[in-house]
Predict the structure of Helix-turn-helix transcriptional regulator.
Amino acid sequence: MADKRQHPPTVRLRRLAAELRRLRAAAGMTREEVTERKGINAATLYRIEKARARPQKRTLIALLDLYEATDAQRADLLAIQTGSNDQGWLRPYHSELPEEYTAYIGFEAEARTVRNYESLFLPGLAQTENYARAVVKGVWAAASHKEVEQRVQARMERQALLSKEDPLLLWAIVDEAALRRVVGGSKVMLEQARHLLQLMEEPNVTFQVIPFDKGAHAGMPGSFVHMDFPDPADPELVYVDTPAGDLFLESEAEMRRYKSMFEHLQAVALGPNDSAALVATIAATRD
């Protein structure tokens, strides 16, 4: 059966939506005024501005005319519209993964920098296959063998971003609890610790640990990922995985909040060298 789900938004679609919101605000118009003057369905305009729908070319041109966009703006946004649904990162089996997860994979694939704080797990980009499998089985106890393996495969494929020609920059901070919790058994954790130590030697990877003796800190409410993208015009993004569902945040206020939180965690955590020493010490207890 063909996959009938809507494709998750891409970075380009999010940028198009953000630029249209900005142009409307600069023109001093509400959504209601736009719908009245151009006859565009209110729900359609809302979906376009929230990156939930790709505007048809004639609709985009009508909006650009209304907002009196410059020639440069028109050319830029029409070019983005042409390729806004490009999903080159999709794999055949991705249609069977949750839509929020495929969206996350897509954003991560296009990011320049990923700043990831984890309180209980090691970051997906740093997990070994055995650790990832144990995590997926433990968290999604009702998942079938096929579903588990699809998740693990996706996680392993994501890690290619760290070794490509222009590699993703990863700055990961974890609570010591993520290193101490025995996921999959001592052998799996020893393998994982050794993998971490190798990864920490890569120039595009920064890894810090917040030790137990630091007490309460800003990351204790939960994990999050902050991404930025190669083109400064592409809006930054924060991803939060919650029991109630995955959240993608992008308002300026939310960006400031999570940037500040990550900076606080950077200051509280051990430096990269001391973090590596702690990982090695923990590994020695399992050797």
Remarks:
- The longest helix spans residues 252-268.
- Residues 1-7, 87-91 have pLDDT under 50 and may be disordered.
